[in-house]
Each structure stands twice: as C-alpha cells, then as structure tokens.
Amino acid sequence: MARNKIALIGSGMIGGTLAHLASLKELGDIVLFDIAEGTPQGKALDISQSGPVEGFDASLKGVNDYAGIEGADVCIVTAGVPRKPGMSRDDLLGINLKVMEQVGAGIAKYAPNAFVICITNPLDAMVWALQKFSGLPKEKVVGMAGVLDSGRFRTFLAEEFQVSVEDVTAFVLGGHGDTMVPLPRYSTVAGIPLTDLVKMGWCTADRLEEIIQRTRDGGAEIVGLLKTGSAYYAPAASAIEMAESYLKDKKRVLPCAAALKGEYGLSDLYVGVPCVIGAGGVERVIEIDLDGGEKGQFEKSVNAVKGLMEACQGIAPSLK
Ligand code: LMR
C-alpha cells in the first residue's frame, strides 16, 4: 500500500510540532519545507531520531524547494509570520498575503491533488486567498481555526466544571478573530447544553460570558505569555485532527474555515462553520439554526472577514 505523503509548508514552531505529531500517529511520510536553509533539515533529522525511542516508522525529510512537496496528499500551511504582543492577527495581512501567493503557486505546481489545511493568519482571509492563488477545488482547501477555538472553549469549560475534557463538546462559529462566535446553545457537558447548565445552577450567566470572552481572547492570551510568537501545540493538534479525518475518511464533524456555497445565505467566502471532513475534503457544510442574537454575532464576524478580503484585493488585484 502506498504511504501517505504529508507536506508541512513552514517549519517554525507549529511546523515542527505538526511533524512530531504526524510521526507519532504514523499518518505518513513527512516533508518539512521552509525557505530558511537548514531549519527543515535539522527538525526532520531531530524528529527522525525520536522514532526508535517512540517506536514510530515515518520517513522525515527537510527541503527548501517546492519540488520536494511533489505528490503530497496533505499540505499543512503555517508559512508566514506570527503576531507579537500588541498586534492583532489582522496586522499580519500584508506580509502573509505575499507568502500565500508563493505557497499557492508551489502547491498548484507540485501538489494539485492535496487536501490543504491553512493555519496562517489572519486565517479566514489567508485561506480564501490561498485557494484563489492555488486554484485548487474549494472543498480541498480549508482553514484550521474552529477546532482550535472549540478546543480552548472545551478546556476552559472542563476546568470550570471540574469534569473531563472528553465529556465537553463545543462549537465556535465565524471568523478566527475577535468577533468569533462561541455557541453556548450548541456546546455541552455530557450532552447537556451550557444554557441548561446555567439554569441548573452549574455557573452563572456572567461567569459563562467570562469564559466565552476568554475563548475569544485565547490566542492573544498565549501571545502575551510567550512574548516571542503565538501558540503552536494546540494549533498543530487541531490541524492534525483535520488531516487524520481526511486521510482515514473518518468523516469527523469539525468546525473549520470552509468555502461557503450558499450555506448560511453566503457564498464566495471562507468562514468558520461545522463541516464533515472525509476523503472528499469538505464533504458537507452543516447549517445549524441560529437565533436572533447568534445570527447578529455571526453577521458581525462575517463582515469582519469580508473587510479583510477587501483589504487583500486592494493589495493583490488578481484576487478580485
Ligand atoms: C491562535 O489563536 O493561537 C493563533 O491564531 C495565533 C494568534 O496569533 O493568536
């Protein structure tokens, strides 16, 4: 049986973590790409040498040329610059858009059949631009954000209620920015919606609101602590969950930044929504009912994403 090939485009902290996780899970053979000479080669060699200790069989290779990603089944894109304290994700738009143009061309040339997961910020606009620059089918290009944001929400809820994270589910809709929309009605502990848990006295509505706000600020909280860059363990774990669902045709329902084709009354844009991820890529976008307040928040988030897309078009007219 042919082994899967996973190309990691960008070999910084997230790229290295992705390579390690993909190796531990034996998802396939891994190519780390970066323009910085030596970095992908060094990380590939280092992780390979953990194989005998951890007991995994994966071949890891570092490359500085896009030809090295040829024939990849999955490409996970982290190339670009992370934010530092005091910056918003949106401040990265100009610099990372140029990087997406090069990455899109590289993927189009060498890995046109890949499932592409973008992590670069500002996420929703970057994945939209990457799809256009690469010309790959929309259902094969997605953004990683909802899994991360929901993971943060689940962590905070499990901590608050003193229960296992395994028994907490959460949905976060919308863009991966300050306007993201954590949904208490669709988030549960042992199947009980948070809105009911508040009625049952598990926590007050005000406390739940604080947890929701902490989720929205989750990326910035880590940037503030690290000071030199942004989160990498949880973003990498989130992207690997998406890659695994694709490679194993698991059909997981995961919140992803996906191209909408009329769902939620929207098209021609990427925004966070629940999706079924299987061998076909995004096989289905799940439309959930939103009440008036949730709709209003989602619209605000969508408008923020549209503003970023317009800014991208101002810089790169080919995106129009
Ligand atoms: C995150 O949410 O951790 C990432 O989007 C990185 C960032 O800048 O917050």
Automatic annotation (TrEMBL):
Keyword terms, alphabetized: NAD, Oxidoreductase, Tricarboxylic acid cycle
Enzyme active site: 176 (proton acceptor)
Domain Lactate/malate dehydrogenase C-terminal: 148-309
InterPro entries cross-referenced by the UniProt entry: L-lactate/malate_DH, Lactate/malate_DH_C, Lactate/malate_DH_N, Lactate_DH/Glyco_Ohase_4_C, Malate_DH_type3, NAD(P)-bd_dom_sf
One Gene Ontology MF term: L-malate dehydrogenase (NAD+) activity
Sequence ranges assigned to domain Lactate/malate dehydrogenase N-terminal in this UniProt record: 5-143
Catalytic reaction annotation: (S)-malate + NAD(+) = oxaloacetate + NADH + H(+)
Family note: Belongs to the LDH/MDH superfamily. MDH type 3 family.
Protein name: Malate dehydrogenase
Organism: Jiella mangrovi
